[in-house]
């Protein structure tokens, strides 16, 4: 199996590195000829274009931004001859509709989304869950790639991709937003955002370690809401800047439900917290 990559960003480059190590990288292209040439040199493959890559590869991975998947598929369909290739995009939220022009050429289409953040560096792929969708041939090829990457394949149907991607965003993107919010608050006493993050990082790492050590994230919940400490939460709300209160209350309401489900607070404490947080939030 030879694999080509269309898209030379962080995701494409990271996957290309693994494919090169496995000896199955047919080539990689980017938005410009110059960037394509740089990537070819980096990964030790011949300079190519999308049409030639279609001919050389058994499987094509489209690692372009979500908004460009349909455009790339349409342009590819207009420049290549029909063939039973496998084409997989790597978006977590996009369905298979943008790849429709390629199905008319006999291609088997699907998606392979690594449930991982590609912020930079040598992003870990081993052990990472990777969501598959597509026809049987596309999913079979996807499973082989997941195995090559050292990941774990699982299926997410097209109609549930948005909910799946929302879960991923809550886990990754919103966690970053929450930490950034904490940094902005803490910087008042540390003198800078950098020092604020340095101060908060051990707390974050401790929480991350607790999460990593459990099979149930809810079980490691601590803090005033987990204790039913309504007075402390009220003090927080009185002290916080107005801009932060909606997020604090929204997170607090979710945390209240979690604490109640954990059994660390009773229904009376939960009602007090909901009334307090809901009053500010509303």
Architecture overview:
By secondary structure, this protein is an alpha/beta fold. It has 2 domains: about 5-160, Rossmann fold (3-Layer(aba) Sandwich); about 170-280. Helix content is about 55%, strand content about 10%. The protein contains 13 helices and 7 strands. The chain has helices spanning about 10-20, 35-45, 50-55, 70-75, 100-105, 135-150, 160-170, 175-190, 195-210, 225, 230-240, 245-260, 265-280, and strands at about 5, 25-30, 60, 85-90, 110-115, 130-135, 150-155. Strand 6, helix 6 and strand 7 (about 150-155) form a beta-alpha-beta unit. The longest helix has 20 residues, at about 195-210. It is elongated. Pfam families: DUF2520, Rossmann-like. This is DUF2520 domain-containing protein.
State the total count of DSSP E strands.
7
How much is the radius of gyration in Å? 24 Å
Largest sheet: 7 strands, mixed
SSE string, helix = H, strand = E? EHEHHEHEHEEHEHHHHHHH
SS element count, helices: 13
Distance between termini?
Answer: 57 Å
Structural class: alpha/beta
Strands ordered across the widest β-sheet: 2-1-3-4-5-6-7
Residue windows where pLDDT falls under 50 for at least 5 positions = none
Shape: elongated
> Going by CATH, what is the homologous superfamily of the largest domain?
NAD(P)-binding Rossmann-like Domain
The oligomerization state is single chain
CATH architecture of the largest domain: 3-Layer(aba) Sandwich
Count of individual domains: 2
CATH C-level class of the largest domain is: Alpha Beta
CATH topology of the largest domain: Rossmann fold
State the share of residues found in helices, binned by percent.
40-55%
**Average pLDDT taken over every residue:** 95
Beta fraction: 5-15%
